[in-house]
């Protein structure tokens, strides 16, 4: 699933991509997109350095979590849809790279720890996915608050209760210390390349006490899938890393 995702992990080309972002992509993308430039500049004035993440990585997280600008929505629309146009039509190379880099650094820091995260949505999804492998295929926000918790119910008005997810993520990271909203949503951000097995599906039609109409339980396979890994530096667009999706 999500085969057209811009799912670059930059495995083996981190330094080359960093140079390309610093020398070309970031300024070009800010010049082409006034909203992105304003959001990036605001984040640069607001964030402070830590010992873990670089300044651009901190700025990228702040930009992504700034719901007022909706840059996250613009980014994820392109991440979901523009895999085949990654080289020519994708407009968020800088943000994608620094978010991915930040998540990988935070993943190393947690030394193999996996999180249980929860996600609410207003969308409907196929229920013919039990025991199958899926990806979200974009940067996926989730919360550490269980679906039944009072904090999660507070989020329901913004995020919905049609389809919800209980997610074991091993590549996702806790970005709440670096978020614009800090600990308000206790956010775990999941990268596009993480693969999950759907281990359970429950519906409110059969279980009245469910907090959502449908609840999917996902377990990380602990194997990523990156169809476009380092594709900017290769003549062929397709490059598989890790697990191939069903």
Describe the structure.
It is a single chain. Strands 1-4-8-7-2 form a 5-stranded mixed β-sheet. A 3-stranded antiparallel β-sheet has the order 3-6-5. The protein is globular and about 55 Å long. It has 6 helices and 8 strands, in the order H-H-H-H-H-E-E-E-H-E-E-E-E-E. The protein has 246 residues and is α+β, with helices and mostly antiparallel strands. It folds into 2 domains: 97 residues, Toxin ADP-ribosyltransferase, Chain A, domain 1, CATH 3.90.176.10; 110 residues, Alpha-Beta Complex (Toxin ADP-ribosyltransferase, Chain A, domain 1), CATH 3.90.176.10. 33% of the residues lie in helices and 19% in strands.
Structure summarized in a few sentences:
The protein has 246 residues and is an alpha+beta fold. Helix content is 33%, strand content 19%. The chain has helices at residues 14-32, 34-46, 55-65, 71-81, 93-109, 150-159, and strands at residues 115-121, 133-134, 140-143, 163-169, 173-174, 187-190, 194-203, 214-224.
Helix content: 25-40%
What percent of residues are in strands? 15-25%
CATH topology of the largest domain: Toxin ADP-ribosyltransferase, Chain A, domain 1
Backbone CA Rg: 18 Å
CATH class of the largest domain: Alpha Beta
- Tell me, what's the shape? globular
Structural class: alpha+beta
CATH architecture of the largest domain: Alpha-Beta Complex
* Cα distance spanning the termini: 7 Å
Detail the poorly predicted runs.
239-246
CATH superfamily of the largest domain: Toxin ADP-ribosyltransferase, Chain A, domain 1
């Amino acid at each position: 699933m999500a085969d057209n995702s811009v799912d670059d992990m930059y495995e083996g080309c981190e330094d080359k991509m960093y140079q390309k972002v610093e020398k070309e992509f970031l300024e070009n993308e800010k010049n082409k997109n006034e909203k992105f430039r304003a959001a990036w500049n605001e984040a640069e004035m607001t964030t402070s350095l830590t010992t873990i993440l670089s300044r651009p990585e901190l700025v990228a997280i702040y930009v992504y979590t700034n719901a007022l600008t909706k840059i996250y929505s613009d980014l994820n629309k392109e991440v979901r849809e523009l895999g085949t146009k990654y080289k020519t039509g994708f407009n968020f190379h800088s943000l994608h790279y620094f978010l991915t880099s930040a998540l990988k650094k935070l993943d190393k820091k947690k030394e193999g720890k996996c999180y249980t995260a929860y996600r609410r949505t207003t969308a409907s999804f196929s229920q013919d996915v039990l025991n199958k492998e899926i990806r979200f295929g974009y940067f996926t926000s989730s919360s550490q608050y269980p679906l039944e918790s009072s904090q999660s119910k507070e989020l329901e008005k913004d995020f919905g209760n049609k389809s919800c997810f209980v997610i074991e993520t091993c590549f996702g990271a806790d970005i709440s210390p670096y978020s614009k909203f800090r600990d308000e949503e206790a956010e775990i951000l999941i990268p596009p390349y993480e693969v999950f097995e759907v281990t359970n599906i429950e519906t409110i039609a059969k279980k009245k006490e469910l907090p959502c109409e449908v609840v999917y339980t996902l377990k990380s396979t602990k194997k990523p899938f990156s169809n476009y890994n380092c594709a900017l530096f290769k003549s062929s667009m397709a490059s598989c890393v890790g697990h191939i999706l069903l």
